[in-house]
Amino acid sequence: MISIREQLSSVSSGALKGALNALLPLRCLCCDRRVGSDDGLCPVCWHGMAFIEKPVCHRLGTPFAYDVGEETWSPRAIASPPVFDRLRSVAFYEGSAQRLVLAFKFGGRRELARPMGKWMSNAGQEFLGPDCLIVPVPLHWGRLISRRFNQAGALAQVIAKECGGSYEPDILKRQKRTRRQVGLSAKERQKNVRSAFSVDKTRLDRLEGRHVVLIDDVITTGSTIAACTKTLLGGGAASVDILTFALADPSQSDAGGEIHP
Ligand SMILES: [Zn+2]
Fold first, then answer.
1. Which of 40, 83, 85, 193 has its Cβ near the most Cβ atoms within 10 Å?
2. Is the same domain home to 30 and 111?
3. For ligand 1, a single-atom ion, which residues have Cβ within 5 Å?
């Protein structure tokens, strides 16, 4: 659903914007408290965002407690290198970030794509650029009908616009509807997504030798991301980086080894 503010934002400027703000006060994206700026969080919700900040592991994007220099790999990445090149996320999947993801995905708050996509563009700036193919993790058509939109696609559109890359929602296909990953064991998760994805054969020439940035709202178990990456590399992509809004903390779950081959 597009808010009244969203509909009027393109025509509002100067005095009109002032009048609009008086009529429709700016609200926190997360909790609806009044705030001073557009696309912002109130101090309470800002404090509730577990932002992932540098220094981070060059491969897995997980934070280091202290600066260990550029392009350093965490012990987990060294022990078992992931199938993708780099993973970056805005925040851990808890507190305000979790509330935003749930409101966006299940609460009909589609207007959150813009601020969430902008945060993601910032988090992925080291690998985003005009040469990238921006590919969303696809939903199975059955789930697309019940949810009515692909949240990863909405974020990917914003990110492609921000970095000048090419939005490619049709290269990667989900050919079977998978069970929800949460609650399954590591082995069950891998089996669940194995051969779930394929590359559209008519678009192989677009993928050949290209740098792909794969987009999803949240990485929970990592099995889906690993399966998508393998499919894209198998289809001819030169490299795959991952950009998500939220990252489930591996220390809080058994997701640790899941993003590995
Ligand atoms: Zn708030």
1. 193
2. no
3. 28, 30-31, 33, 42, 45
